Amino acid sequence: MRSFNNKVAAITGAASGMGRQLAVQLARHGCHLALSDVNESGLAETQVLARQANRAIRISVRTLDVSDRKAVFDWADATAREHGKVNLIFNNAGVGLASTAEATWHWGQKGTTSARSTRISRNSATARGAVTLASPS
Ligand SMILES: NC(=O)c1ccc[n+]([C@@H]2O[C@H](COP(=O)([O-])OP(=O)(O)OC[C@H]3O[C@@H](n4cnc5c(N)ncnc54)[C@H](O)[C@@H]3O)[C@@H](O)[C@H]2O)c1
Question: Where are the chain's structural domains?
Fold first, then answer.
């Protein structure tokens, strides 16, 4: 991918830390954003920061827990609908040792493409990158 301009990135765990920084940096490069996190207020702050970084991009936000399979799939559907495509998926929200087996699988432990990102890819038909930042330990 030569440029992030006019691409669409979906980021989980976007309310703080690396997810927030990723959102702001991508916004500076003209990338549209679909942001999610379980932390509603932190997510709203990230939305403000990304908006300050770039007034021209489209930003959607969704409060969800990534261990909630239906909520994630609903978000994937909504993201594909609202943005028309998804080019990059960042599986960033943390998963600890206490997570369930199903949640762990969804975090891409069998590779970088999780069930969630596959779903987004299928809906958008344009996603090329799925990046898993989560460390399970
Ligand atoms: N910071 C590091 O040095 C480092 C190194 C290797 C891997 N990682 C991984 O990168 C990811 C981000 O790290 P960070 O330091 O930015 O962490 P962070 O704690 O600052 O941010 C994680 C975000 O994920 C959200 N989150 C947690 N559980 C969630 C859930 N069930 N559903 C939705 N959102 C949830 C939190 O609200 C938070 O906003 C983590 O998965 C971490 O394991 C971080």
Answer: 8-132
Which amino acids bring their CB within 6 angstroms of ligand 1?
Answer: 12-13, 15-19, 37-39, 42, 65-67, 92-94, 133-135
The distance between the two most distant Cα atoms of the chain, rounded to a whole number of Å, is: 40
Over the stretch 117-131, which tens digit does the pLDDT of each residue have?
A: 444 443 433 344 555
For the entire predicted model, the pTM comes to: 0.82
Higher pLDDT, 75 or 104: 75
Amino acid type, 58:
R
Mutation choice for ligand 1 from 35, 38, 89, 106, CB with most ligand atoms inside 8 A: 38
Residue 19, number of CB atoms within 10 A of its CB? 24
Pick the CATH number of 8-132 from 3.40.50.12780, 1.10.357.10, 3.20.20.80, 3.40.50.720: 3.40.50.720
Alpha helices in the chain (DSSP H): 17-28, 40-53, 69-83, 101-106, 115-124
93 vs 98: CA distance, rounded Å = 14
